[in-house]
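TA notes, week 10

Several of you asked for a full example with nothing omitted. So below is the full record: C-alpha coordinates for the whole chain, then the designed sequence directly under it. When grading your own attempts, check the secondary structure regions first.
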Protein backbone atom coordinates (compact mmCIF):
# COMPACT_ATOMS: atom_id res chain seq x y z
CA UNK A 1 0.00 0.00 0.00
CA UNK A 2 1.53 3.29 -1.11
CA UNK A 3 2.20 6.26 1.17
CA UNK A 4 -0.39 8.25 -0.74
CA UNK A 5 -3.03 5.63 -0.11
CA UNK A 6 -2.10 5.50 3.57
CA UNK A 7 -2.55 9.27 3.78
CA UNK A 8 -6.02 8.99 2.23
CA UNK A 9 -6.94 6.25 4.69
CA UNK A 10 -5.67 8.43 7.54
CA UNK A 11 -8.06 11.21 6.48
CA UNK A 12 -10.97 8.81 6.88
CA UNK A 13 -9.60 7.28 10.08
CA UNK A 14 -9.80 10.57 12.01
CA UNK A 15 -13.60 11.12 11.75
CA UNK A 16 -14.19 7.37 12.08
CA UNK A 17 -12.21 7.33 15.33
CA UNK A 18 -14.26 10.26 16.61
CA UNK A 19 -17.52 8.53 15.67
CA UNK A 20 -16.69 5.04 16.94
CA UNK A 21 -14.51 5.64 19.99
CA UNK A 22 -15.66 9.17 20.77
CA UNK A 23 -18.65 8.40 23.02
CA UNK A 24 -16.44 6.25 25.25
CA UNK A 25 -13.70 8.88 25.49
CA UNK A 26 -16.21 11.65 26.14
CA UNK A 27 -17.31 9.99 29.37
CA UNK A 28 -14.24 11.50 31.00
CA UNK A 29 -15.51 15.01 30.29
CA UNK A 30 -17.16 16.90 33.18
CA UNK A 31 -20.93 16.59 33.28
CA UNK A 32 -21.47 20.24 34.19
CA UNK A 33 -21.43 23.16 31.78
CA UNK A 34 -19.22 26.21 31.77
CA UNK A 35 -19.73 29.70 30.35
CA UNK A 36 -20.69 29.72 26.64
CA UNK A 37 -17.79 30.29 24.26
CA UNK A 38 -15.32 30.38 27.11
CA UNK A 39 -12.44 28.24 28.33
CA UNK A 40 -12.95 24.62 29.28
CA UNK A 41 -11.36 22.65 32.10
CA UNK A 42 -11.25 19.44 30.05
CA UNK A 43 -9.67 20.50 26.74
CA UNK A 44 -7.95 23.58 25.26
CA UNK A 45 -10.66 23.96 22.58
CA UNK A 46 -13.08 25.86 24.80
CA UNK A 47 -16.86 25.58 25.05
CA UNK A 48 -19.74 25.95 22.60
CA UNK A 49 -22.87 28.10 22.82
CA UNK A 50 -24.39 25.82 25.47
CA UNK A 51 -21.25 25.72 27.57
CA UNK A 52 -20.31 22.17 26.57
CA UNK A 53 -16.71 21.25 25.94
CA UNK A 54 -16.09 21.48 22.17
CA UNK A 55 -13.95 18.35 22.02
CA UNK A 56 -16.43 16.31 24.08
CA UNK A 57 -19.29 17.46 21.84
CA UNK A 58 -17.35 16.47 18.72
CA UNK A 59 -16.59 13.06 20.21
CA UNK A 60 -20.28 12.35 20.75
CA UNK A 61 -21.69 14.03 17.63
CA UNK A 62 -20.44 11.79 14.84
CA UNK A 63 -22.01 8.43 15.55
CA UNK A 64 -25.59 9.26 14.55
CA UNK A 65 -24.40 11.43 11.66
CA UNK A 66 -22.16 8.74 10.20
CA UNK A 67 -24.53 5.83 10.83
CA UNK A 68 -27.48 7.65 9.28
CA UNK A 69 -25.48 8.58 6.19
CA UNK A 70 -24.01 5.10 5.72
CA UNK A 71 -27.27 3.18 6.16
CA UNK A 72 -29.08 5.63 3.91
CA UNK A 73 -26.61 5.15 1.06
CA UNK A 74 -26.61 1.37 1.36
CA UNK A 75 -30.41 1.22 1.40
CA UNK A 76 -30.75 3.65 -1.52
CA UNK A 77 -28.12 1.79 -3.53
CA UNK A 78 -29.86 -1.53 -3.00
CA UNK A 79 -33.17 -0.16 -4.31
CA UNK A 80 -31.56 1.83 -7.12
CA UNK A 81 -29.39 -1.14 -8.15
CA UNK A 82 -32.38 -3.47 -8.42
CA UNK A 83 -34.37 -0.95 -10.47
CA UNK A 84 -31.43 -0.11 -12.75
CA UNK A 85 -30.46 -3.72 -13.44
CA UNK A 86 -34.09 -4.76 -14.00
CA UNK A 87 -34.55 -1.90 -16.49
CA UNK A 88 -31.30 -2.69 -18.33
CA UNK A 89 -32.19 -6.38 -18.59
CA UNK A 90 -35.86 -5.82 -19.45
CA UNK A 91 -36.84 -7.96 -22.46
CA UNK A 92 -39.43 -5.40 -23.61
CA UNK A 93 -39.16 -1.65 -24.12
CA UNK A 94 -42.43 -0.99 -22.32
CA UNK A 95 -41.09 -2.70 -19.18
CA UNK A 96 -38.00 -0.49 -19.26
CA UNK A 97 -40.25 2.57 -19.62
CA UNK A 98 -42.47 1.38 -16.76
CA UNK A 99 -39.46 1.22 -14.45
CA UNK A 100 -37.60 4.35 -15.56
CA UNK A 101 -40.31 6.95 -16.25
CA UNK A 102 -41.17 7.36 -12.53
CA UNK A 103 -37.42 7.70 -11.92
CA UNK A 104 -37.30 10.51 -14.49
CA UNK A 105 -40.13 12.31 -12.68
CA UNK A 106 -38.32 11.94 -9.35
CA UNK A 107 -35.17 13.39 -10.91
CA UNK A 108 -37.08 16.60 -11.71
CA UNK A 109 -37.77 17.28 -8.02
CA UNK A 110 -34.92 19.12 -6.22
CA UNK A 111 -33.33 16.64 -3.85
CA UNK A 112 -32.81 19.14 -1.05
CA UNK A 113 -36.50 20.10 -1.27
CA UNK A 114 -37.47 16.47 -0.62
CA UNK A 115 -35.21 16.35 2.42
CA UNK A 116 -36.45 19.69 3.76
CA UNK A 117 -40.14 18.78 3.43
CA UNK A 118 -39.55 15.41 5.11
CA UNK A 119 -37.54 17.04 7.90
CA UNK A 120 -40.34 19.51 8.64
CA UNK A 121 -43.09 16.90 8.46
CA UNK A 122 -41.09 14.35 10.44
CA UNK A 123 -40.13 16.88 13.14
CA UNK A 124 -36.45 16.06 12.92
CA UNK A 125 -36.86 12.28 13.06
CA UNK A 126 -33.61 10.62 11.99
CA UNK A 127 -35.58 7.79 10.35
CA UNK A 128 -37.73 10.17 8.28
CA UNK A 129 -34.71 12.24 7.23
CA UNK A 130 -32.78 9.12 6.25
CA UNK A 131 -35.75 7.89 4.22
CA UNK A 132 -36.03 11.23 2.40
CA UNK A 133 -32.32 11.28 1.59
CA UNK A 134 -32.56 7.70 0.35
CA UNK A 135 -35.53 8.62 -1.86
CA UNK A 136 -33.57 11.54 -3.30
CA UNK A 137 -30.62 9.25 -4.09
CA UNK A 138 -32.57 6.36 -5.63
CA UNK A 139 -33.30 8.13 -8.92
CA UNK A 140 -29.71 9.07 -9.91
CA UNK A 141 -28.45 5.69 -8.67
CA UNK A 142 -31.00 3.80 -10.77
CA UNK A 143 -30.10 5.88 -13.82
CA UNK A 144 -26.39 5.29 -13.37
CA UNK A 145 -26.77 1.56 -12.74
CA UNK A 146 -29.02 1.19 -15.79
CA UNK A 147 -26.38 2.88 -17.97
CA UNK A 148 -23.58 0.76 -16.50
CA UNK A 149 -25.55 -2.48 -16.79
CA UNK A 150 -26.87 -1.92 -20.31
CA UNK A 151 -23.45 -2.28 -21.95
CA UNK A 152 -22.77 -5.44 -19.95
CA UNK A 153 -26.13 -7.19 -20.23
CA UNK A 154 -26.38 -6.56 -23.98
CA UNK A 155 -22.67 -6.91 -24.73
CA UNK A 156 -21.06 -9.57 -26.94
CA UNK A 157 -19.79 -11.65 -24.00
CA UNK A 158 -23.29 -11.91 -22.55
CA UNK A 159 -24.69 -12.78 -25.96
CA UNK A 160 -22.13 -15.57 -26.28
CA UNK A 161 -22.98 -16.91 -22.82
CA UNK A 162 -26.68 -16.85 -23.63
CA UNK A 163 -26.05 -18.72 -26.88
CA UNK A 164 -24.23 -21.35 -24.82
CA UNK A 165 -27.27 -21.67 -22.58
CA UNK A 166 -25.53 -20.15 -19.56
CA UNK A 167 -27.72 -17.09 -19.09
CA UNK A 168 -28.74 -18.26 -15.60
CA UNK A 169 -25.40 -19.71 -14.57
CA UNK A 170 -22.96 -18.49 -11.93
CA UNK A 171 -20.54 -17.66 -14.74
CA UNK A 172 -23.08 -15.26 -16.26
CA UNK A 173 -23.64 -13.43 -13.00
CA UNK A 174 -20.00 -13.33 -11.96
CA UNK A 175 -18.99 -11.76 -15.27
CA UNK A 176 -21.64 -9.07 -14.89
CA UNK A 177 -20.50 -8.32 -11.34
CA UNK A 178 -16.84 -8.02 -12.38
CA UNK A 179 -17.64 -5.68 -15.25
CA UNK A 180 -19.86 -3.42 -13.17
CA UNK A 181 -17.84 -3.45 -9.93
CA UNK A 182 -15.45 -0.59 -10.73
CA UNK A 183 -17.95 2.02 -11.99
CA UNK A 184 -20.40 1.17 -9.21
CA UNK A 185 -17.68 1.41 -6.56
CA UNK A 186 -16.72 4.85 -7.84
CA UNK A 187 -20.35 5.94 -7.90
CA UNK A 188 -20.88 4.65 -4.37
CA UNK A 189 -18.28 7.11 -3.10
CA UNK A 190 -20.07 9.95 -4.90
CA UNK A 191 -23.45 8.94 -3.47
CA UNK A 192 -22.01 8.79 0.04
CA UNK A 193 -20.76 12.34 -0.43
CA UNK A 194 -24.24 13.38 -1.60
CA UNK A 195 -25.85 11.74 1.44
CA UNK A 196 -23.47 13.56 3.78
CA UNK A 197 -24.23 16.82 1.94
CA UNK A 198 -28.00 16.40 2.27
CA UNK A 199 -27.78 15.34 5.90
CA UNK A 200 -25.42 18.19 6.78
CA UNK A 201 -27.58 20.69 4.89
CA UNK A 202 -30.75 19.66 6.72
CA UNK A 203 -29.00 19.86 10.07
CA UNK A 204 -27.30 23.14 9.21
CA UNK A 205 -30.67 24.68 8.31
CA UNK A 206 -32.12 23.51 11.61
CA UNK A 207 -34.44 21.00 9.93
CA UNK A 208 -32.65 17.83 10.97
CA UNK A 209 -31.70 16.60 14.40
CA UNK A 210 -32.50 18.50 17.59
CA UNK A 211 -30.81 21.91 17.55
CA UNK A 212 -29.23 21.14 20.94
CA UNK A 213 -27.68 17.96 19.54
CA UNK A 214 -23.92 17.54 19.37
CA UNK A 215 -24.22 16.36 15.76
CA UNK A 216 -21.35 17.79 13.70
CA UNK A 217 -23.52 19.67 11.22
CA UNK A 218 -25.80 20.99 13.95
CA UNK A 219 -22.74 22.21 15.85
CA UNK A 220 -21.48 24.12 12.81
CA UNK A 221 -24.85 25.84 12.36
CA UNK A 222 -25.40 26.55 16.05
CA UNK A 223 -21.97 28.06 16.68
CA UNK A 224 -21.31 29.82 13.36
CA UNK A 225 -22.02 33.28 14.79
CA UNK A 226 -19.12 32.83 17.24
CA UNK A 227 -16.57 31.82 14.61
CA UNK A 228 -14.24 34.70 15.53
CA UNK A 229 -14.38 34.30 19.31
CA UNK A 230 -14.68 30.50 19.55
CA UNK A 231 -13.39 29.17 16.21
CA UNK A 232 -12.92 25.56 17.34
CA UNK A 233 -16.64 25.16 18.00
CA UNK A 234 -17.13 25.50 14.21
CA UNK A 235 -13.80 24.41 12.75
CA UNK A 236 -13.55 21.04 14.53
CA UNK A 237 -16.95 19.55 13.53
CA UNK A 238 -16.71 21.11 10.07
CA UNK A 239 -13.23 19.69 9.53
CA UNK A 240 -14.42 16.21 10.54
CA UNK A 241 -17.14 16.30 7.88
CA UNK A 242 -14.67 17.52 5.24
CA UNK A 243 -12.09 14.87 6.14
CA UNK A 244 -14.70 12.14 5.89
CA UNK A 245 -15.96 13.21 2.45
CA UNK A 246 -12.61 14.12 0.89
CA UNK A 247 -10.80 11.08 2.29
CA UNK A 248 -13.50 8.68 1.07
CA UNK A 249 -13.45 9.99 -2.49
CA UNK A 250 -9.66 10.22 -2.71
CA UNK A 251 -9.23 6.67 -1.44
CA UNK A 252 -11.89 5.23 -3.75
CA UNK A 253 -10.44 7.08 -6.76
CA UNK A 254 -6.93 5.89 -5.95
CA UNK A 255 -8.02 2.28 -5.51
CA UNK A 256 -9.95 2.27 -8.78
CA UNK A 257 -7.14 3.97 -10.66
CA UNK A 258 -4.66 1.24 -9.67
CA UNK A 259 -3.41 -0.14 -13.03
CA UNK A 260 -2.78 -3.54 -11.46
CA UNK A 261 -6.39 -3.75 -10.35
CA UNK A 262 -7.59 -2.69 -13.78
CA UNK A 263 -5.39 -5.31 -15.49
CA UNK A 264 -6.66 -7.99 -13.13
CA UNK A 265 -10.27 -7.11 -13.90
CA UNK A 266 -9.61 -7.17 -17.65
CA UNK A 267 -7.86 -10.56 -17.41
CA UNK A 268 -10.73 -11.95 -15.38
CA UNK A 269 -13.17 -10.73 -18.00
CA UNK A 270 -11.20 -12.42 -20.78
CA UNK A 271 -10.83 -15.65 -18.82
CA UNK A 272 -14.52 -15.64 -17.99
Amino acid sequence: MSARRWSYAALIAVPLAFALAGPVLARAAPAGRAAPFGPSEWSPLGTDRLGRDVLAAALTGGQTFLLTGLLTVLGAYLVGFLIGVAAAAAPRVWLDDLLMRPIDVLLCIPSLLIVMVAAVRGRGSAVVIAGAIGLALVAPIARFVRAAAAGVVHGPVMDALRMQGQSRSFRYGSYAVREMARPLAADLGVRFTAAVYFLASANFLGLGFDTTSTDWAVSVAANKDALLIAPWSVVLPGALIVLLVVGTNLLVDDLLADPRAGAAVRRAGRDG
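The mean pLDDT is 81. Use that as a sanity check on your answer.
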